[in-house]
C-alpha cells in the first residue's frame, strides 16, 4: 500500500439550465441516475443470472438506478487462436469464450442461464425501481456467428475477398447488408421484449450513424424512453441517436492521478495535470451541452488491464473515495463497477469461463463489505447517490472548472 499525494476536490459554483437542447430528448430519470456495471462471471461465485438476481437488493440499496450488464449472449467456441484477442490469450484461461466475440446475438450463453432467467432478473430490478441496460456488441462478432449462415454478405471483405478483421482479430459486421441490419435491430427488439430498457453500445463510433438512427427509430416505437450509451466520442452520434458518450479524457485523467503507472490512453500519457485537464475541457466543449458524459474509475476493461495495480489494491480507500466524489458530483452519468461500492480489490478478468477452476478466485470479494475500508466506501457511495437524487444542482447545474490549483495536483470544479 502507498499513500497518494494527490488532492482531489469538487465544488459546484453555479446553477443554471443548459442552453442547448438535444435533438433526442434524454429521459428525465437518466439525468440523476447512478449506473452499476455487472459482469456476471465476476459478480458472484456462481457467475449466472440467478445468482446475480439475488444480489439486486444490495445493488438497489447502494442508490443505483440502472444495472448495466456486460455481454451475456452466446460466445464463439472456435479454438483457432489466430481469431482470439491478445488480452484473451494473455489471460491464461485458454478458453475461446470471449463475451465480446459473439456467435448468436439472440441466445443467452448457457453458462449464464436462459431467457427466463434474464427476464426474472429484469422483473426483480424493475420491481426494485431500477432499469436494466445490456451491452450491445455490433461492430464485430465471432467467426462462426449465425449471421454468416443467414446472409452471404454478413462480414466485411478485403479487396482479395478475405474477411476483414478488427484490431481484436474478430470479423467486422457488414452494415451495408440490409438483411444484417434488420436482423440486428430485431435482436434489440427481442431483448426489449424481455425487459431490457437500454443499450450500452460497444465501440459505437465505428458503427455507421445511419444504422443507429434506424435502430433507435424502431426501438423507440416499443419504448419511447429507450436509452442509448455510446462507447465513443463523436458529437454527431449524440445529436442523432445517443443519450450519453464516454468521458474518456476525464476518466483516464482521474485514473492516472490515482495510479500513474496504470494503463492509460495515449492522450494522457506523459502529460502534466494542467495539460491533461486542458484536453478534458477541449473535448467536453465539443459535446452537446445536454448530453451526458459517462464517467468511470473502473470497468471490465480497466479492472482486467490494471490487474495488480487496481487502485483499491495499491491505495488507501480514501484515495478512491476522493475520486468517487469527483466522479459522482461532476455533471454526467457515474458508473460503479462490480464491487467498487465495497472497495473490492480482487484480481479481475472477464475472460474466465464459469466452469474454469481458477475463475472463482477472481470474483468480487464480498467479505470486503464487512471490513472497515469497504464499509467506509459503501457509506460514501450511498451518500453521493442520495445527493444526486435529492438536489437538482448536480444534474441541472452549470459546471465550471477551477484551474488555479492544477499545477499543484488539485483537480476541482
Kindly describe this structure.
By secondary structure, the chain is an alpha/beta fold. It has 17 helices and twelve strands. The chain has helices at residues 28-31, 40-43, 49-54, 56-61, 86-90, 115-127, 147-150, 178-193, 209-220, 235-240, 248-258, 273-285, 300-306, 311-314, 317-329, 372-390, 393-396; strands at 7-8, 35-38, 66-69, 73-75, 102-108, 131-136, 198-201, 227-230, 244-246, 292-295, 333-337, 410-411. It has an eight-stranded parallel barrel with strand order 2-3-6-7-8-9-10-11. A two-stranded parallel ribbon has the order 1-12. β7, α9 (209-220) and β8 form a beta-alpha-beta unit. The chain is globular and about 60 Å long.
Whole-angstrom Rg: 21 Å
> What is the global morphology?
globular
The unreliable regions are: 1-22
Q: Residue share in helices?
A: 25-40%
Number of strands: 12
Give the H and E element order. EHEHHHEEHEHEHHEHEHEHHEHHHEHHE
- Sheet having the most strands: 8 strands, parallel, barrel
What average pLDDT do the residues reach?
A: 92
Side by side, the strands of the main sheet go 2-3-6-7-8-9-10-11
User: Gap between N and C termini, in Å?
Assistant: 29 Å
Structural class: alpha/beta
Features:
about 425 residues, alpha/beta, two-stranded parallel ribbon, disordered N terminus, globular
How are the secondary structure elements laid out?
Elements: E1 7-8, H1 28-31, E2 35-38, H2 40-43, H3 49-54, H4 56-61, E3 66-69, E4 73-75, H5 86-90, E5 102-108, H6 115-127, E6 131-136, H7 147-150, H8 178-193, E7 198-201, H9 209-220, E8 227-230, H10 235-240, E9 244-246, H11 248-258, H12 273-285, E10 292-295, H13 300-306, H14 311-314, H15 317-329, E11 333-337, H16 372-390, H17 393-396, E12 410-411
Parallel strand pairs: 1-12, 2-3, 2-11, 3-6, 6-7, 7-8, 8-9, 9-10, 10-11
Antiparallel strand pairs: 4-5
Helix pairs in contact: 8-9, 11-12, 11-15, 15-16
Amino acid at each position: 500500500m502507498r499513500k497518494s499525494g494527490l488532492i482531489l476536490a469538487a465544488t459546484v459554483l453555479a446553477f443554471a439550465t443548459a442552453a442547448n437542447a438535444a435533438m433526442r430528448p434524454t429521459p428525465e430519470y437518466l439525468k440523476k441516475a447512478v449506473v452499476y456495471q455487472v459482469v456476471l462471471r465476476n459478480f458472484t461465485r456462481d457467475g449466472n443470472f440467478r445468482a446475480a438476481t439475488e444480489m439486486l437488493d444490495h445493488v438497489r440499496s447502494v442508490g443505483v438506478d440502472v444495472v448495466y450488464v456486460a455481454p451475456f449472449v452466446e460466445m464463439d467456441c472456435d479454438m483457432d487462436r489466430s481469431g482470439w484477442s491478445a488480452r484473451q490469450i494473455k489471460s491464461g484461461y485458454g478458453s475461446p469464450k470471449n463475451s465480446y466475440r459473439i456467435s448468436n446475438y439472440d441466445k443467452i450463453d448457457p453458462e449464464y442461464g436462459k431467457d427466463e432467467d434474464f427476464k426474472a432478473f429484469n422483473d426483480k430490478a424493475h420491481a426494485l425501481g431500477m432499469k436494466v441496460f445490456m451491452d450491445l456488441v455490433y461492430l464485430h462478432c465471432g467467426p462462426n456467428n449465425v449471421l454468416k449462415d443467414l446472409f452471404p454478405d454478413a462480414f466485411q471483405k478485403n479487396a482479395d475477398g478475405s474477411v476483414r478483421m478488427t484490431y481484436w482479430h474478430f470479423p467486422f459486421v457488414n452494415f451495408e447488408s440490409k438483411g444484417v441490419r434488420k436482423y440486428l435491430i430485431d435482436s434489440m427488439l427481442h431483448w426489449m421484449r424481455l425487459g431490457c430498457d437500454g443499450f450500452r453500445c460497444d465501440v459505437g463510433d465505428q458503427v455507421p450513424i445511419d444504422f443507429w438512427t434506424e435502430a433507435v427509430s424502431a426501438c423507440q416505437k416499443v419504448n419511447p424512453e429507450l436509452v442509448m450509451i455510446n462507447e465513443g466520442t463523436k458529437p454527431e452520434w449524440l445529436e442523432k441517436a445517443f443519450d450519453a458518450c464516454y468521458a474518456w479524457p476525464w476518466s483516464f485523467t482521474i485514473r492516472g492521478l490515482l495510479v500513474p503507472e496504470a494503463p492509460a490512453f495515449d492522450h494522457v500519457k506523459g502529460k502534466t495535470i494542467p495539460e491533461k485537464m486542458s484536453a478534458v475541457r477541449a473535448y467536453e466543449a465539443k459535446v452537446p451541452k445536454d448530453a451526458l458524459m459517462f464517467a468511470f474509475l473502473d470497468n471490465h476493461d480497466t479492472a482486467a488491464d490494471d490487474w495488480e495495480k487496481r487502485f483499491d489494491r495499491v491505495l488507501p480507500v480514501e484515495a478512491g473515495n476522493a475520486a468517487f466524489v469527483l466522479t459522482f458530483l461532476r455533471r454526467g452519468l457515474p458508473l460503479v463497477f462490480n464491487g467498487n461500492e465495497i472497495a473490492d480489490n480482487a484480481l479481475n478478468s472477464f475472460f474466465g469461463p464459469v466452469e474454469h477452476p481458477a475463475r472463482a478466485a477472481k470474483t468480487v470479494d464480498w467479505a470486503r463489505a464487512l471490513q472497515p475500508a469497504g464499509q467506509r466506501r459503501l457509506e460514501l457511495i450511498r451518500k453521493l447517490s442520495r445527493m444526486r437524487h435529492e438536489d437538482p444542482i448536480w444534474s441541472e447545474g452549470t459546471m465550471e472548472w477551477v484551474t488555479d490549483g492544477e499545477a499543484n495536483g488539485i483537480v476541482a470544479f
